[in-house]
Structure formats: C-alpha cells, structure tokens
Amino acid sequence: MTRYLLRRAAGALAVLLVLSVVVYATFYIAPGDPARLACGPRCNPEQIAQVRAQLSLGDPVYVQYWHFLQGIVAGHDYSTGTALIHCDAPCFGLSYQNNQQVTGMLVERLPATASLAAGAMAVSLLLGTVTGLLSALRRGGVTERVLTWLTLAGTATPVFISGLALLMLFCAYLAWLPFPSYVPLTEDPEQWAWNMLLPWAALGLLESAKYARLTRSSLLETLAEDHIRTFRAYGVAERKLVTRHALRGAVAPVVSLSAADFGSMFGGAVLTEMMFGLPGIGALLVHATTTLDLPVVVAVVMVTGTAVVLANIVADVVYAAADRRVALR
After folding, report:
1. Which H or E element spans position 258?
2. Is the separation of the CB atoms in 294 and 278 below 8 Å?
3. Do 280 and 106 contact (CB within 8 A), yes or no?
4. Which residue in 137, 317, 127 sits closest to 210, CA to CA?
5. What is the secondary structure of 181-235 as a DSSP string?
6. What is the rounded CA–CA span in Å between residue 180 and residue 171?
7. How far apart are CA 80 and CA 112, in angstroms?
8. Of 135, 155, 206, 304, which residue is 20 to 30 A from 234 by alpha carbon distance?
9. Tens-digit pLDDT profile for residues 215-263
C-alpha cells in the first residue's frame, strides 16, 4: 500500500505541474497584454510600461513561469508602484481590479464553497444510495419503475430549475425556510445550516441520480456473484445477506466516485452559488472572468484542479483499501 501511495503522489505532482504549464500558457502567453489588463483601460503607454516592468513581463517566458511557480511554493514580493507587498505562499499575485492578494480573496470565499460541496455531497449520497438500494431490492416491481423515472427526472432537471422550484415552494409559498443568506459556520451554526438547506438540496438532488443508478447496478451485480448465491443456498436471511455481504461490495465504487465528485464540485457549483447568492469561489470566478482579472481566474482554476487531483487520490486510496488487488497492480 505504501508503494501504491507513493506512485499516486508522484502522479499527482506530475499532473499539477502539467496543469500549471497549461494554465500559465493559456492566460499569460496567449495573445493579449496582461500589463494592459492590470493597468486598466485609461492607462497611457508610460503607465503600461511601468506595470509591465513591475510584473517582470519583459523577462523570458521560462523565467516568468519560474517566478509563477516560485510564488505558489514560496511566496513572492510585488511592487505596486507606491509600496512593496509580500504575498505568502501559495501566492497567485494581486488582483487587477482592487490590488488585493488573490490568496486572501480565495481563503475568504472557500468556506462557502466547501460548505456547499460537503452538504450537497451528503444529500446526494444519502438519497442516491437509498434510492438505488430500494430499486435493486424491488427489481421488476412498481417501486423500481417509479424510482427509475424519478432518477431520470433528477438527471434531466438543471440545477437552476430545481433551485427555483425549491425557493418558490419552501420560501415563497410555504414560508418554512428563509430566503438563503450565507452565514459563516463559525458565527452561527444553526443559521448556517438553515440557510444552506436549499442550496444543498438543489445541488444534491441533481447529483443523487448518478449515485442511485450506480448503487442499483453495483448491488445487482454483487447479488449475482457466486458467494452470494452460496450464502443464500445455506439459508442466510436476505436482510443479513444484503447488509453484511452484498452492500459492502456495492458501496465501494460509490464511495470512490463520491470522493472524486467532491473535488469537481468546487468548480462545478457556479450556478448554485449564483442562484442562492453564496459568496463562493464559483461566483468569484464568474466576476473575475467578466472583468478579465487574470490572477483571480488563474488562482481559481489552479485551486479547483488541485482539489480534483487530491480528491481522485482519496478515491483511489479508498478503492484500494476496499479491493487489495488494486494496490498490488
């Protein structure tokens, strides 16, 4: 297992290095002038030249890329023309719009995105596994057909439709819940949970359909294996057979997929954050894209990519722990 973990860690570092090259080339080497974007539309040529010198854009490309990596790993010093600002690692530079450290902007918004991703993942896993389990155990009956149609409906419904329906039903019509307004967990845990219920449900309902289908197919495949038929022939009770023997093998791929999906939710929950007014990194990315704030865009892409890579490592470790044959390959 140790050798397997080392291989996965080395592969993750290689993937992150390639990601940094692609991101840097896309946003800083592609056609365009970062100095003009950083300076603003009203800058004259002298001011643009000064910004270009401050950003070291006159250096060779490989030197600029090395400074980019050095800032992420060890921090960097930035001159704003009036003061020298030290940015601690990981440092993604200063925002073109407000001259703030991008790292601080990300740290400020990460809790909202992490809250959304964790709660939505819990909802999707709970609904998906229960639905898939019932669908597999009631195979061929009315329950399976109804759950299958509900699963298909959940997959086909965009998050902005389900989110709007939840807002109208629980906030406007029934008035059971307040209109969501993000409250940090550290300030008021109860209000944090109440205000996050609808965003969790909107995103979790969309993702739960995938886990329902996966749980159903995995459980049916496990129930058809030889050792399960042997247990059944020896008279083992069906409930004990499912909960103690079949469910463990069926849940392993669900757990590994959920770990990978948790990482992708950091960048894929933009619509949910925008609809419910959550101050997360998805909303930050949308604003930075519209204002061409390259350091913020680069930082969000790198953080999201890192989250996906780390989540995939966790998924592989969980799957290897469930099936020792994977770790021996």
Report:
1. helix 247-268
2. no
3. no
4. 127
5. ----TTT-HHHHHHHHHHHHHHHHHHHHHHHHHHHHHHHHHHHTSHHHHHHHHTT
6. 9
7. 30
8. 135
9. 888 888 887 777 777 877 777 777 777 777 777 777 777 877 787 777 7
